[in-house]
Every structure is written in C-alpha cells, then in structure tokens.
Amino acid sequence: MTLPAAVLFDMDGTLVDTETLWWESAAEVAAGLGHHLSDADAPEVVGRAVADTAAHLVRLTGAPRPDDVAADLAGSFLRRVDAGAPPRPGARRLLAALEAAGVPFALVSASPRSVVDSVVAGSLTDVDFAFTLSADDTVRTKPHPDPYRAAAERFGAPPGACVAVEDSPDGTASAEAAGCPVLVVPSLLPVAAGEGRYFAGSLADVDVAALGRVLDGGPEGGREGSPKGGPQGVILATSDRSFAQTSG
User: Fold this and answer.
1) Burial of 21 by CB count in 10 Å (0-12 exposed, 13-18 middle, 19+ buried)?
2) Which of 102, 131, 135, 228 has the least CB density, counted as fewest CB within 10 Å?
3) Measuring CA to CA, which residue among 161, 160, 178 is closest to residue 170?
4) How many whole angstroms separate alpha carbon 127 and alpha carbon 109?
C-alpha cells in the first residue's frame, strides 16, 4: 500500500458540520432580498464560494450591489460559525491517525479566511494542519483546480500523489481537475460516481489504509480510474466489506 504524500481536506461539510450553517446564512440573506431559498438553489449554494452564491442571488433578485450581498453572506456565516461548528463524525479520529502515521495534511477550503480561521481556532483547535488555504488565497477557488494545485505545490508533491477528501460536487470537481484522486464523503448534495472518485458514508468509516487504497486506485491497484474491469466509483469502508463497487 502506498501512503499519500499528503491528504488535502475540504472543510465545510467534510471536517466540520458547517454546510447547514452556510445554508441558513444564504436563506437569511436571500429572504432579505425577497427570495425564498429552495432545493432549486442548492447547486448554487452548497459547496460554493461566497462570491458564487452572492452572484446567484443577485441574478435572481436584481440586487444592485453584489459586494454588499457577498459581505452580508460572509458576515452571517461567520457569526454562525463563531457560535459553534461541530466536527463531522470520525473527523478528529482520522486526523489523529494521519498524524500518528506521519502523513501530513492540510485544509483546502472555499470559505473566506475569516471563517477558516474561526473554525481552526474553535472546532479544529490543536489539529496539526501543515497549512490552511482559503478562498482568499488563490485567484480562483473551487470548482476551479487552483486551490488543490496550490496545496500540492506547497507540499512539493504532484497532485496525483495527494488524496483530496471532499463532500460536494464543486469541491470534487476542483480536486479532480487538479489531478488528485478524491475520497468523497457526501453531505447535503449527492456526488456522481466517476473515474478516480471513491466514496465513504462517513469519515468514521475511513482509516489511513483506506486513503492509501484511494491512491493505489482501489482494491486491485491501478492509480488511474476505477478498479480493473470494474464500474466507476468505489465505496470505501473499514469494515469487512472494505470495497463495495457501485455502478456510475
């Protein structure tokens, strides 16, 4: 088994349960603009950067100042995160296991720096991240590949030697476009199966060995795409049914 050169973790919905807080913030701002947020808005909210959701609300409502909408979203979200953002099940255990195994890891988020710093100082305090990246640290954020490319570069490793851990379609697309194999732990939105994507129901089902298998390309090896002869998408778990293949 090959260990990853580094593990690159998304934050919202992956390590901490903040996607619901982000949805509440978007709903609050949308209501102030006269729009009721619904499931139809989810692709423009879940896993999206503040600027993207602000642009969506401006398109819907005709609000005249996109920067003000973005500021309202960021402020509302930060207030909620400051009040408490609980870790996702299994997150702290997996981070501790990586540290014990000597595998470095970083936080790669599409949230603003203020929110990232609040979470790291709160729910993820004492976690030994090599570094954190926010939406403010690259020219383009998710779903573009820039954040994951920048993270791999900071580790001095090719993206294909790093495993990204994501929960959303946009985050998965970002990591995939950067060239990282991706472990997907879906939260609010489903993520389609595809080559180079591996799935777990919870971080509680993932250990260091499972991340190594993601890098190796599944139970039969082969670092590109799905297992040899198998359908796209693999469900990882640490129980006896370590790999259950799923059709794409």
Assistant:
1) buried
2) 102
3) 178
4) 16
Distance (Å, rounded) from C-alpha 103 to C-alpha 2? 11
Residue with tokens 């998710």: 142
Taking the C-alpha atoms of 207, 212, 213 and 215 in order, what is their torsion angle to the nearest 10 degrees? 140
β pairing state of 132-133 and 105-108: parallel
| pLDDT tens digits, one per residue of 45-100 | 987 889 999 999 999 999 988 999 999 999 999 999 888 889 999 999 999 999 99
Per the structure block, which two tokens stand in for 70?
């973005």
Encoding tokens for residue 144?
A: 């573009």
Predicted TM-score (pTM) of the model is 0.81
DSSP string, 37-83: --GGGGGGTTT--HHHHHHHHHHHH--S-HHHHHHHHHHHHHHHHHH
State the DSSP string of 189-202: S-----TTEEE-S-
